[in-house]
Amino acid sequence: MTVGLIAMQLFSGLALGAILIMVALGLSIIFGMLGIVNFAHGALFMVGAYAGLYVASLTGSFWWGLLLAPLLIGAFGMLIERFLIRPLYGRSPDDPLLLTFGLGYVLVEAVRILFGTEGIPFSTPAELRGVVNLGFGVFPIYRLFVVGVVVAVLVLLWVGLEKTKFGLIVRAGAADPTIMRVLGVDIDRLWLVIFGIGVAITALGGVLAAPMRNINPEMGTLVLAEAFVVTVIGGMGSLGGAVVAGLLVGVAISMTSLFAPEMATIVMFALMAVILLVRPNGLYGRALPGQ
Amino acid sequence: MTRKTGLSAGRGVTRRTALAGIAGGIGTLAMPWVARAQNDTIRIGFPTPLTGPFAAEANDQVRSAQLAVKQFNDKGGIAGRQIELLVRDDKLNAGEAATRTLELIEKDKVHAVVGALSAAVQLAVNEVTRARKVLYVSISQSDSINEAKDGSRYTFHEALNPHMTTQVVAKHTFKQGAKVAHLVADYAYGHEMLRGFKRAGEEIGVETVAEVLHPFGAAEYSTFIPTILASGADVLCISNFGRDQANSIQQAVDFGVKEQMQIVVPVLLHNQRIAVEPDVFEGVVGGANYWWGLEESVPSAKTFNDAFRAMYDGALPTDYGAYGYTGVASLLMAMEAAGGTDTEAVVDALEALKYDIAKGEQRYRQCDHQSVQSVLVLKSKGAGDMKDEADLFEVVANEPASEEVLRSCAELGYTG
Q: B239: buried, middle or exposed (CB in 10 Å: 19+, 13-18, 0-12)?
């Protein structure tokens, strides 16, 4: 085992971490701001990938798919919020959880009926094929591109939330919706937009994953588990926590792959269990009311 | 569009079966003679993973199995009895498969079971069937089911097994002194393929330089690839199945593995090849039980393809799909020879059967009930070499049926 191999493994882990952040972001935003545990997250990720494929095959360009699929599915997410989730606000948190759980099944079955149960090819765009030499090993250009997109999305989110008036309202709305309503802020519309953004980011993750993992109706199943692990480790609702947790899980998987590869999937759950024992609210999670 | 046919074909049976059940129930009340006709049908249970990572292969098996059933029904059934295929989704889960199989036997009163599509799940099905002395024809790869501890008088294995597959594939891909790395799915199928490749490799004289086990059903392979690239191997054997095959090859190719080593798979899957772009699989070599292109040299393959095309709008049968046909058809031929469904008589007929229905002469070996059959070695074509979109593979070798590539009956634990 050489230093080069370990460096390469570490780098693969960080790159995988970026993908995991992308996978978890939508779940984390929707929980953090709206308090909704979105069990349809994995299915929306998968639907995003199919939408990307559909747009890409219509237009003949990956780039249109990457741009339009998140917008389309984001709009679809807003419909879900407006007509399915909004009537459940103020009721037990289990209600939206059960609703999205069922919605996930509906979406998977709908895709199976529309596109079939088999995998569908999704090629890497020609501009992003091939590998680059990093000095300690080679790495696919496309994966580096994905890391770049994730960084860009994170920067946009941070600026949007921390530096704009909209962000201020969002944060205040998450902290105390009643007061905001009294102050005359249209909370309903705000939540509609946030849910849409969360779903759009999830769909973007699906399109980005497609050239690496190809597309099939069950691709969201593992994603849902990964997203929950990252969100729970980071602390439910903490964006910064999701970033740290994503990288941590990525590196943990990668290092385990080097020494005990068959444990690579288990390790993230083990890590989650250990962190929850030490920090029951995750790394950066706020204590929930009543704790 | 052919994909959808696979899905609806699989589901349709379940619905039809349910309807038939209701009709049968009403019949018992109103029209006793209808109910009697119902009881006369020959029922074949068919548990298979219609959903999940092996769904593509499973749906193809159902379609081919239905072709076999249709052919026998069209010529008047067996001893005047119609045949019915009862398809159940085992969800690629051993517990689910055992439950469904038990239901098929106890509730649906099937006369035999064919199916399961996993080296691990088929053993669960076999546990249920052999304990009840119900005939089971397994149609997916397993070495274990050949062995005396798992086999039985009622257990038949129509598929290739990992030992024979890896013997033949290694013969055509390993060269003396070569360095071989392995990426292996961490369950029965992967372990048996790895064992087979290593045994064949020892005889040929290759050096194993890396062995990476990956979790079954993994979506990410990026973290396994640095070890493989660093091993300096000439050949990378990827022993996994279904979507794992497409995903792992896709990601290995993304990392430039093909520039450094030859990718070899025990079984080159038609459905996984078409789930990715041609350039991803280009040059990958692997074994197969069947490939439609065999019709150029094997008359029975042509007959099988034509029947399949006629039933499914010109679609072509796949490798694992063909198992559904050869598995069910060989069973029905034996039932025909035995003149009915008496299990002991059908077992004797299967042991005596010689059949050539898709890929040349086949027969079940006496001791382990393994189907002795030809093994294909295929190479995946690049987009430039493909005449049309069905022209996926070139035949590197077609090893004729022979017991030479099987483990001996003594080694499997059969005495006398």
A: buried
Dist. CA B130–CA B101, nearest whole Å: 11
Compute φ and ψ for A90, nearest 5 degrees: 90, -10
The answer to whether B190 touches B239, Cβ cutoff 8 Å, is yes
Question: Residue with structure tokens 């596109």?
Answer: A115
B243 at A interface, C-beta within 8 A: yes
Beta bridge partners of B87: B46
Give the single-character DSSP code of B298. Answer: -
| Dihedral sign of CA atoms B155, B160, B165, B168 in order | positive
Residue among B191, B222, B274 with most chain A CBs within 10 A, to mutate: B222
- In the chain, the amino acid numbered B81 is R
CA atoms within 13 Å, Cβ hemisphere of A221 = 14
Query: Is 0.95 surpassed by the pTM of this model?
Result: no
pLDDT for A103-135, tens place per residue?
999 999 999 999 987 778 888 898 999 999 988
ipTM score of complex = 0.89
- B-facing residues of A in 140-159 (CB < 8 A) are 140, 142-143
> How are strands ordered across the β-sheet holding B179-185?
B207-214, B179-185, B235-239, B262-267, B285-288, B375-380, B393-399
A163-194 pLDDT, tens digit per residue, is 999 889 888 888 888 888 888 888 889 999 99
Residue burial A97-117, b: 16+ Cβ < 10 Å; e: rest: eebbeebbeebbeebbeebbb
Q: Is A15 on the interface with B (CB under 8 A)?
A: yes
Maximum CA extent, chain A: 63
DSSP E strands, B158-268: 179-185, 207-214, 235-239, 262-267
Residue contact A13–B220, C-beta within 8 A? no
By C-alpha distance, which of B334, B366, B338 is closest to B353?
A: B334
